[in-house]
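Quick one: structure for this chain?
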Amino acid sequence: MSGSSQLKALIEERFEQFTGTYNAGDIKGFTEMYTEDCKLLPPGSVTKVGRQGIEEVSTGWKAMGLTKVVVTVDDVGGTEGSDTLYSYGQYEFLKDDGSLADTGKYLIIWKKVDGVYLLAIDCYNSNK
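Got it. Here's what it folds into:
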């Protein structure tokens, strides 16, 4: 497996945990996927800072009936062993009944903290 393939596999594994915590309703586990000083740049809203901001937004998503998120990684960049990587790709939010609520794209900056990549900057935009 090439270096870029290994990085993509690593980030896909992190996203499995990311979506798994959100989809299970584990908001605390979901927020812990982010660095303590993270920035979330949601469409049509101000930047949310820190895990408290992530908790606020993700709790809002759940309250709106967005019960499941699916993430596809298009590409990952950076240097293997680096403390910082980026990834971009597609996302889907699904409602309780499994119907599609939203689809869009994202760009994430990952930062290695204590040997684990966490989301440091998360920017996403709806395709609607």
